[in-house]
Amino acid sequence: MAAAAASSAKRALLPWARDAHHALARALQGCGGGGLRGALQMAGSRWSLLQCRWRSSLPQLDSADRSDEESGGEIDWDNLGFGLTPTDYMYVMRCSLEDGVFSRGELSRYGNIELSPSSGVINYGQGLFEGLKAYRTANQQGYMLFRPEENARRMQHGAERMCMPSPSVEQFVHAVKQTVLANRRWVPPQGKGALYIRPLLIGSGPILGLAPAPEYMFLIYAAPVGTYFKEGLAPINLVVEDSLHRAMPGGTGGVKTITNYAPVLKAQMDAKSKGFTDVLYLDAVHKTYLEEASSCNLFIVKDGVVATPATVGTILPGITRKSVIELARDRGYQVEERLVSIDDLIGADEVFCTGTAVVVAPVSSVTYQGHRYEFRTGQDTLSQTLHTTLTSIQMGLAEDKKGWTVAID
Ligand code: COI
């Protein structure tokens, strides 16, 4: 009976409300003998999204074909860095704290958004971001995403830490796909780079006293990118920072909140002014154990054993990090997730960084307390092998035995 009621409710729904129906159906499946009433209670806040209060001021777009120009204009595909090239469309979805769930999202022209001066994100930093990439396939006709569900789940985990509602995994992945299709002329030709996709989740509603914002916005924009560091694919040079810290136990280092990033700018700017590529942070308690760089995770290799700092709350659980661990193990390497001390680093044969933007970046030197330590780079290094293996899967050039890629047709 409960299932029949849900089915007739579905027929009555507008297309945008079908997501809500699916949420209800899931709740009904899980409701055991509680009947429709119990199921509706369980579905509770989800069902309330049918009463969607949002009437967007953003222009509505037809879902069939949104990429209205043929190619990426005058863009120089051979010299893409990690700068912001504005693309055509962004995706926006909203939610009130009262409803607790996101309802219909929509594409709009890429452009400025309106926020209250007292919005939670501006005043108290209530916000998260994600980063993932879409690649053009070898035949140049289709597009591939890499493990987008992982980004969705990481955002959900972060949202819980930051007291925000978050989109479902299905909503997140659907929105990412829509954003890529709408901006498909900006996906670089294969081998030239990727479309970097930046999902944001922000407390957009007004709040004065310190509390969760009353309204939330999930927004995705995208930009074509090449290599992250100015060195391109060449090895990078890091400096260890031993007075400023990125994260602390009990803090938010392990989630991708926007508030983790501005505090590293000072150390990063200082390092760049001295010619270093990026900064390596130490743990805030002992000032002995490596955490991560400003924008990526860290690995060391010693006598064929790979080690990376364990993600124990102060370190971002990178999706590239997780993938690289699996790929290295598949190749027979022992990979340890543990405390990695500065002495471990200094004695390493090889060091490399991983991240969505960074991919797999070899480290040629690390400077610590004025001493420069050098590491193996180039041919026959693990980082080079992992870079090739990973990017071949991401671009559809190697068989994806793990089911990591998601095609967008
Ligand atoms: C990413 O790798 O996607 C990141 O989020 C790092 C960012 C600082 C560019």
Automatic annotation (TrEMBL):
It comes from the Eukaryota. The lineage of its organism: Eukaryota, Viridiplantae, Streptophyta, Embryophyta, Tracheophyta. Its cofactor is pyridoxal 5'-phosphate. This is Branched-chain-amino-acid aminotransferase. It comes from Oryza punctata (Red rice). The keyword Mitochondrion does not apply. GO terms for biological process: amino acid biosynthetic process; branched-chain amino acid biosynthetic process. The keyword Amino-acid biosynthesis applies. PANTHER family: AMINO ACID AMINOTRANSFERASE, BRANCHED-CHAIN-AMINO-ACID AMINOTRANSFERASE.
